[in-house]
Amino acid sequence: MATVKMTFSLDEATAARLRRTAETLGKPKSEVVREAILEYSDKKGRLGDAERRRLLSAFDQLVPAIPGKPFADVDKEIDSLREARRRGGRGTGDNPA
Known about the structure:
Layout: H1 12-25, H2 29-43, H3 49-62, H4 71-86
C-alpha cells in the first residue's frame, strides 16, 4: 500500500492516548490512526445513541397503538386474500386490475 505523509495537530491529551494505545497494541502510531479512521468511517452511516434512543422511544409509543386482531380473524383474512388471488383478483367484472 502506498503511503502519503500528512501533518496533523493533536492536543496533548489525544497525543498521549495515541502513544499509550500504540504501545499497548505494539503497533506504530500511524497504524493506530489508520485503523481508527477506518473504524470511524464505517460507523459514519449508523445511528448515534441519541437518535437510536429517539427512534426506540417513538417505536415504544406507536406499537401499543396498533390495533390487535384475534389470530382467527387474521387467518380468515389471509385465506380470503389467497382465494381472491386464485380467482384472479379481489374485484369482479371482465377487466382485470
